[in-house]
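Possible regression after last week's pipeline update?

I re-ran a chain I had predicted before the update to compare outputs. Posting the input and the new output here so someone can diff against the archived version. Not blocking, just want to make sure nothing changed silently.
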Amino acid sequence: MKATIPRMDTFRRAKLSALAATALALALPSAASRAEVGEQGKADHVKIELWDGNRAMTLINEQLRFTPRSLDTPGHQQTIDFIKSELAKAGIDDVSTQRWAYRSDDGKSYAMTNIIARLDPSNPRRIIVATHYDSIVRAYADKSNPQGPMPGANNSASGVAVLLETARVLSLLPKPAVGIDMIFFDGEEGPRSLGAGDPNWKALGSPYFAAHLRDFYPNAKPEKAVVFDMVCDRDLKLRPEPSSVASALPEVQKYWRTGQTVAPSAFDTHMISYPISDDHTALAAAGIPSFLVIDFEYEPFFNTTQDTADKCSVGSLEAVGRTTLQYLYLP
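New output (post-update):
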């Protein structure tokens, strides 16, 4: 992912951000009423405590065995196999792969794979729940070891863990009203596998998926999409991201409202001051209301050799996972 400078004049962006932030704040209930809202919106069968942060932490550690998980490395294919195996354990039968070759500007070709797991595939109403599974190839931001491996416990493994644990719990519960498509995107860290360390960064997997939406949605687009990235930080503080607010304000409101009921300390309604390009960007551009759940403030560990499992928190994972589970059952 990459923080971006919007291509519009400063006044227009400031005005848009101010209006969006005001709308978000006005829509969120007071602390006194949040519990009431949460209880009224909570279906009896949504046992969010089934979502286990310790299991999610184990899933993070399993992925770290494959480091690096970047394009054209053994760990990349090992991660694909791991995700598919975990989905099978969760009883998710409708799992497909979207494969293509990406040719970079220097002529190098990469084998790319998006993984699509469909829950309740016959349901015509769909929501995308997504993350990326590739990691950067080296710890470019590490001042002492920029050529070293970047484990990516937070930056990539955490999002995968959230989706896989959510899939497991959903298999134990009644079906939500909407069918869920869990998508594990490839190539989010760009053609050089350096993410924000590449000045010419662009995501690869989500734009390809968005360009081929009709392969999966021949009749109607998904109603919405939520993307997870960097969500296990011990000091988790999730704030709405500007392009997400512009694309899917009602869903951002709903998710943060739910989060403040489930884990108040992890959810801050003050909007991030800069937009972030991630896998939600291509989905939004394709006309799907899409938003990003991310804690981008991860210094001094961001893209260094220190992005390890000890920087993650079971509580943070449960804050995100249990909020997501609750959100998926809301009308």
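Follow-up from reviewer: compared with the archived run. The domain at 2-328 is CATH 3.40.630.10 (Aminopeptidase). Marking as no regression found.
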